[in-house]
Amino acid sequence: MPRILLVEDDEIMRVTLFDRLKGMGFEVDQEANGRDALLKIESQEYHLIISDIKMPGLDGVRLLEEARKVAPNADIILMTAYGSVEDAVSCLKKGAADYILKPFDMDDLTIRVNRLLSVRKMKTRCTSLEENVRPARIIGRSPAMAELAELIDRVADSDSTILITGESGTGKELVAAALHYQSGRSGGPYVKVNCGAIQEHLIESELFGHEKGAFTGALARKIGRFEMADGGTLLLDEIGDLPLHLQVKLLRVLQEREIERVGSGRPIRIDVRILCATAKDLKEEVKAGRFREDLFYRLQVIPLFVPPLRERKEDIPDLVRYFLDEFQVMRGMGLDLSPGGLSCLMGYNFPGNIRELRNIIERASVLTRSSTIDLLELPRDLTLDTPGEDSDFGLAEAVGRTEQQYILKALRKTGGVKNEAAALLGISRKNLWEKMKTYQLEI
User: Fold this and answer.
1) CATH number, domain at 422?
2) Which among 347, 325, 344 has a CA at the least distance from the CA of 336?
3) pLDDT of 19 higher than 90
4) Which end of the chain has fewer surrounding CB within 10 Å, N or C?
5) pLDDT given for residue 126 in this prediction
6) DSSP assignment of 108-139, as one string?
7) Beta carbons within 10 angstroms of residue 123's beta carbon
8) Could you report the per-residue pLDDT of 196-222, keeping only the tens digit for each?
9) Is 263 helix (H, G, I), strand (E, B) or coil?
10) This model's pTM is above 0.70
11) What pairs with residue 268 in β-bridges?
12) Domain of 341, in residue numbers
């Protein structure tokens, strides 16, 4: 919902405007002077600021100049009873979105407000579209990700087959996309196929295509993914799920650089760079007889491993900021995560890796009642995560983690009321405050 800050020193005018804007369904804050308004702008996110020019202390023009520095995305409407064309032009040059002379018709202001908010919504949609068509970035400055990025740079221009491994949700598709867009094939097609998501009797046709009449239901010739990717890159995701009889055909494609459509004996030459990705341990699959050993070694010309998020927790703040930026564009409002919320995420092991982190941030961005997501708005599971058998936590760390969980449970139960939470825990409010500070559980 759009948030508006109304700044007007005339009480009757301020109350009248406040009631009208609230009646339109907006969230509205009000201030009687520019200095207090600036403090609000510095601490909260507003989509629109409506301010009088002539005010004691900090006038509307100065407020406009200061607001542009701390809230560059907010639109600002200036109101005045002593204006001229020159004044209006001056304010617009300084960054005002609109300028209105008093007395004005309330319907006129309503039209201006709705117009600015509609334009803002359109800009948000355009930004979202631009983000969606832009190749996704690999986020992370940890040593593990720096090493991975350096490897990607070194092998991107090679046409060698690359096997990308890592747990589910670590971002293997992003690595594949980076390999394509950093290569000399970036101007060609980038085609993806999930080998585990296609029914076994259809996957051969999906990969290699088929001729008309090749099987029941083949009413016309179909071009397969290999031909679609000619001149570019093909990602075979979840390659560990490829049926054994097709593994033989894939091995031939890799060796001969040609395919045959189903129902045709004519080979078709292809120029495709092949990337494969899997969350499975292919060595174990080979031992179990579910994956061909010769294909495994042919795929693993250049192996790339994407580390799980629990092994690169220093990347969590950057990932959180990236996802917050993504969802604030979709929501049309600024979003931040409280220090306590970030501390909670840093202490979680993320079995679902980056995909799980993204889902957590998306959920919190929908449910939050303000522009800052605090730790009580994060899923309860995060505070109940316990170290596994292989954890190297000492006794002090284990005790501290348990204490932290009980504090969070008490805060959740009392809705964040610290006096009541302290009483539940049997400690003083001062003691609770000190422990929250120690564990960075600010809310």
Assistant:
1) 1.10.8.60
2) 325
3) yes
4) N
5) 61
6) HHHHHHHHHHHHHHHHHHHHHHHHHHSPPPPP
7) 13
8) 888 888 899 999 999 888 888 888 778
9) coil
10) no
11) 259
12) 311-438
